[in-house]
Amino acid sequence: MKVLMLTWEYPPRIVGGISRVVYNLAHMIGRKDIEIHVITLWELGMYEVEKDGENVYIHRVHTYDIEANDFVDWVHHMNMAFVEYSIRVINDFGKFDIIHAHDWIVSYAAKTIKHAYTIPLVATIHATEHGRNCGIYSDMQRYIHNKEWWISYESWNLIVNSEYMKKEIQEIFKVPNNKINVIPNGVNVNKYDNVHLEKGFREKFAKDSEKIVFFVGRLVNEKGVHVLIDAIPKVLHYYENVKFIIAGKGPEFDNLKNKVKWNKVEEKVMFTGYVDDHELNKMFKCADISVFPSLYEPFGIVALEGIVAGTTLVISDTGGLGDIIDHGYDGMKSYTGNSNSFADSILSILYNPDKAEKMKARALKKVNDIYNWEIITEKTINVYREVLKEFKNSNWKVQDLKERFKEVENRD
């Protein structure tokens, strides 16, 4: 089997969670004796082509030099570049059995290649514009929403990462139940085995006496960092020896810093800005509690990374994120958007270290049993096999243009 995978992000290019998902999935699929070619974006300092693991070929594509007017134009440029490059890949490596597209942003390229070469399309929908914004309110949101519907329609089968996402896709796009496969994201359980903290690393962020509460993610409204910041005064009132570390960048950065000043907790909050994976892994290892106060989260792969790193989780009970944790058993859940509830969950861990240790152990067992890339990969490959089986037994094909012209001649 040969798979052509389309994604706008792949390490070291990381925009959100898609990058890590595609990386781990591609590597695991390659180990199953399946040839996989990943078409993704090039950035300065990256190799244009490389073999990244067993049977995994990475193709990093340059977008056009013409400056785009806006984000929509840029997406068109990217997709046309992906189509051009994919044609070269197919010419050089032969026809593929499956196209696997990740999210709406590669929908133009996926649809074009699908119909040009009669290759069945599988798409993973990682999130929706409707869910991120609790509805569709602007022309840009409507455009993205329509493209998400489009790739859902064009796909033979869809993959989503939680039951929550399945329900959302069914409700907003009216996708049939038997077309959607729920396959959770996973995490490398050995991710932190070789991560070592040099002397003085932890002291850059907190005193020895302080517990570290750690958030990492894009600083956008849907991640709920403002909920965390509004929880801090209550936490500090009852437990002073704690430091809050916020890692990441995004459009809400200035607003969040101003909120910290408004709450008069500047001395207890540190914004690190963007941190690379190497630094991030070490920060996870020295944290005591990982917090994810999202307002909308289809899954939340970074929460799994927090578990594997050995931190105790506090999350909001939203979307697929809420499915990861059983409250009080392997982590703490709070009411979505409720700072008072979030503060209580943090305090429960701070005041009950023995309970926190038991929750960490249970959470790690759950990760090994459910969110294991070996299991996830087998489920994904089974989707490919089922699609290929149905495709071979179907009558779907793109009509030959010569045949169409013959029909015109006969009609005349």
Could you tell me the number of beta strands? 14
Q: What do the pLDDT scores average to?
A: 91
Order of helices and strands: EHEEEHEHEHHEHEEHEHEHEHEHEHHHH
Content-based structural category: alpha/beta
Q: What is the first-to-last residue Cα distance?
A: 44 Å
Level of helix content?
40-55%
Number of helices: 15
The radius of gyration over CA amounts to: 23 Å
Strand order of the largest sheet: 3-4-2-1-5-6-7-8
Give start-end ranges of low-pLDDT stretches. Answer: none
Q: Bin the strand percentage.
A: 15-25%
Biggest beta sheet attributes: 8 strands, mixed
Q: What best-fitting shape do the alpha-carbon axes yield? A: elongated
Summary?
This protein is α/β, with parallel strands linked by helices.
Give a written overview of the molecule.
- The structure is a single chain.
- By secondary structure, the protein is an alpha/beta fold.
- The protein is 45% helix and 16% strand.
- It is built from 15 helices and 14 strands.
- An eight-stranded mixed beta sheet has the order 3-4-2-1-5-6-7-8, with helices on both faces. A six-stranded parallel beta sheet has the order 11-10-9-12-13-14, sandwiched between helices.
- Strand 13, helix 11 and strand 14 (332-334) form a beta-alpha-beta unit.
- Helix 1 crosses helix 14, helix 3 packs parallel to helix 5 and helix 7 (225-238) crosses helix 12 (339-350).
- The longest helix has 23 residues, at 71-93.
- The two termini are 44 Å apart.
